[in-house]
Amino acid sequence: MLAAAWAVCAADILPMPPPSPPNDDHDGYYDRPEPLGEHAIAWIYVAASSLSILCCVTVLLCHVLAPGLSRFPSSLLLWRVVCDLLLSLHFVLLNSQQLFDTSATDAGVSACTAPLALLAQFGLFGSLSWYACLSANVYLSVTRPFTPPAGRMALYHAWVWTGAALSGVYASAHAGYRSAYHICWTNARPGSPLRNLDNWVLFLGWVVAYASLGVAALLYGQSRLLFGGASLAHRLAPRLQQLRASRLYTLVFTAYWALLGTVYTFMYVRYEVQGYGYERAPRYLFAALLGSVGTVDCACWWGVQATVQPGTLRALRRALCCGARPAVAADDDDAEGGTSGDGDDKHPPPLRQRASTISDETLFGSRAD
User: Which ranges of the chain have pLDDT less than 70?
Assistant: First the structure.
């Protein structure tokens, strides 16, 4: 990601070839491909985003049926799923009009409104920021294993929702259709000083910063587990399950946003800075990746449930078959109130008792992950 950031900076400084001659049906800058390619991208967005919406709704439904499935840090991912649901809804609403409104010469431009721009930026910033909170939790779980996660949830919520609301209002005030990405976002036209500012302040800068945070948190946490000694391993035992889940979430999302940020940087440099005409392959890939953000979250969420707390999946199956709310073992690491399942277990066992029940095979097997 740092290399991608340097590439963007160099692209703004080094001399570039002249842009392709503009077409009369656009804003005088981009050389757009044939409508068939645009419709293919719209179909990719609609298909991928519809699947993401279905996955997000499934995760939220599972949270209602079995609250124990969303114990900390899965509760952090739950809020990220909400943001991904909003972002996916934006893609479906925007690109559906381009598919079915054949009377408009540029349906994307006509469909782009201030509320859609607000929805896009709110969901994008929120999804990225909850990923950053997951990365921060990896670091804090290692350095402060006895600090309840509920103490930092208020800070997480304040940062994410304040940033998402402010950046969303800004995007809605400068709403415009980005035809290269099929997004109703900010209207940063060539020659405007807002072009670089919008890309960095609203998206690319956060991708670089959060991905760097995720990599640093993973490396630090793993090094502490491997070289911290038996004393640290004993201290981390009560939160071993939580730490394993956080590491898996952070690893998957770091890889996803690094790939998406790299594709976005390539498109930004080639189309917006250098002025080349649009190409199909990178735009198809970008649409598939961004439209699948909710699907990636859902797959990661189910993966954590299956590997870290498999008993809760059996409880969910019983709930779906019998229509009863399943009772899931309580976890004092739960950031949302310290109880789970049916809510009857209000007094989880002390940390020392929990630490003594973890076997050496479980502990050192996790350290070898």
Answer: 1-36, 70, 102-108, 188-196, 237-239, 307-369
pLDDT (tens digit per residue) in 104-128: 546 667 788 999 999 999 999 999 9
Contact predicate 130/160, CB 8 Å: yes
Q: Which pLDDT score, from 0 to 100, does residue 127 have? A: 92
Q: Of 248, 253, 241, 252, which Cα lies nearest the Cα of 145?
A: 241
Cβ-contact 279, 239 below 8 angstroms: no
Comparing CA positions, the residue from 244, 236, 247, 230 lying closest to residue 351 is 236
Q: Which pTM value belongs to this model?
A: 0.74
Contact of 221 with 49, CB cutoff 8 Å: no
Average pLDDT of every residue of the chain:
75
Residue type, 146: F
Q: What percentage of the chain carries pLDDT values higher than 70?
A: 67
CA distance linking residue 61 with residue 269, whole number of Å: 41
Q: What is the dihedral of CA 272, 277, 282, 285, to 10 degrees?
A: 90
Comparing C-alpha atoms, which of 318, 342, 319, 345 is closest to residue 331? 345
